[in-house]
Amino acid sequence: MLPPMPATDPPPATADLRSEDDHLVLVVSGEWRITRPRPEWSRLSPATPPTQLRIEPTDLTHWDTSLVLFVAAVTRWCREHDIACDQSALPAALQRLGKHFEDETRLPVPTERPSNFIAMVGRAALDSYRKSLQYARFMGECTLSVLFLLRHPGKFRWRDSLAEMQRCGAMALPITGLIAFLVGVILAYSGAVILRQFGGDIWVADLVGVTMTREMAAMMTAIVLAGRTGAAFAAEIGNMRANEEVDALTTLGIRPIDFLVIPRLVALGVMMPLLTLYANALGVVGGMAIAWGLLEIPPQAFWVEMLSIVDLSDLMTGMIKAVTFGAIIGFAGCLRGLQASRSSAGVGEAATSAVVTAILLIIVSDAIFAVIFNALGW
Questions:
Q1: Residue 136: which residues within 8 A CB-CB, separation 6 or more?
Q2: Which of 1, 36, 358, 366 is least crowded, fewest Cβ atoms below 10 Å from its Cβ?
Q3: pLDDT, tens digit, for every residue of 122-134?
Q4: Least confident span in 102-111, 153-162, 303-312, 358-367
Q5: How far apart (Å, rounded) are the C-alpha atoms in residues 212 and 148?
Q6: How far apart are CA 350 and CA 334, in angstroms?
Q7: Taking Cα atoms as reference points, which of 208, 163, 164 lies closest to residue 184?
Q8: What string of DSSP letters covers 93-120?
């Protein structure tokens, strides 16, 4: 019986430089493993940069992340010295991984905070201007998409929109109802403490009715959906962007705005007023319960007094705000999702940014509505 042949060690990872005309050729060969010794580009880089550098694999038996890191170091060195780097001879998978690695690690160079106050204000103004342009561009694309779908209603994805209505509408009823009920309880209890000192207990109905229909129902519902639905939109679209599904839609000739954004905007625009009406009812019930238990005001008297002060203009004010807030939530969630970086961290940042942006715009728009309705006498 013949003795077993001794196992041969795999060839080590090597990287050699040779000159050809006016450029350098970097030859990589052997077995590149992250757990084995391997060359370092910092020791191989020439003192005099060439005009071009070409990377060629020769007898490359195995490679893993170690070769990706090595090629990334070479690419970074070439970019710093303004040298053309030819990687066309490398395997396609290695080129793709190197490109992803370069995109994820190319971070903006941190700049020192200017000591001049005017410079700080100028930079902040430029940043606000750029963000305003992004918002305006995205809003314009959504407007054009809506006009296109109005002319071609058969291309609107009704099934996706109905599914989003289920998610952001029916599934949000428990949390929206609970918060609206508790807000009505808080308003009634706070008002009762003050009004009973002046013998105006019955006016608690006026306080709860007007506040809920004009402000709190739409505002609290919008804040709940901003944290619940806006973040979900941003995370879902951001994950699709990280998985290159958005790029696939563009490659197939499908506009991401039509496919992803408009069905979600329609769903929120339809469900926000319905959820606001639901919150109005639960808020009034909460106030009625406190008035009955604390002030001994019968529900019939509470209802009659509330109807004496709340009219259709108060209800329509809340509905107008609800539609606007729903559009803002969908706008912020979808925009941040499409702007997310292609990583898991970028998805989380997009969700956080969507919630912050939505709540900020909701409060700003509510303040603008307050001024406009006051000027109109509503």
A1: none
A2: 1
A3: 888 888 888 888 8
A4: 102-111
A5: 37
A6: 9
A7: 208
A8: HHHHHHHHHHHHH-PPPP-PPPS-HHHH
Full DSSP string of 58-86: EEEEE--HHHHHHHHHHHHHHHHTT-EEE
Angle, helices 173-195 vs 217-225, to 10°: value is: 140
**Domain 14-105, second-level architecture:** 2-Layer Sandwich (3.30)
Strand order in the sheet with 14-20: 14-20, 23-31, 52-62, 84-86
Residue 228 DSSP class: I
Q: Please write the tens of the pLDDT for every residue from 296-334.
A: 888 899 899 898 888 888 889 999 999 999 999 999 999
DSSP 229-266: IIHHHHHHHHHHHHTTHHHHHHHTT--HIIIIIHHHHH
pTM of the model: 0.66
Domain residue ranges of the chain, discontinuous segments joined by +: 14-105, 149-376
Among residues 148, 159, 175, which one has the least CA distance to residue 275?
175
3-state class of 322 per DSSP?
Answer: helix
Q: Which of 373, 211, 193 is nearest to 306 (CA)?
A: 211
Task: Name the residue among 283, 292, 289 with its Cα closest to residue 310.
Answer: 283
Q: How far apart, in Å, are the Cα atoms of 77 and each of 74, 81, 92, 160, 297?
A: 5, 6, 21, 48, 79
* Residue recorded with tokens 């000159």: 19
Instruction: Please tell me the least confidently modeled range out of 115-119, 182-186, 271-275.
Output: 115-119
CA distances from 163 to 157, 172, 233, 274 (A): 10, 13, 13, 16
Structure tokens at 196: 């009973």
Helix (H, G, I), strand (E, B) or coil at 227: helix
Q: Position 291: which residue type?
A: A
Tokens of 44: 């191989």
For 314, the token pair is: 């108060």
Give yes or no for a contact between 85 and 53, defined as CB atoms under 8 angstroms apart: yes
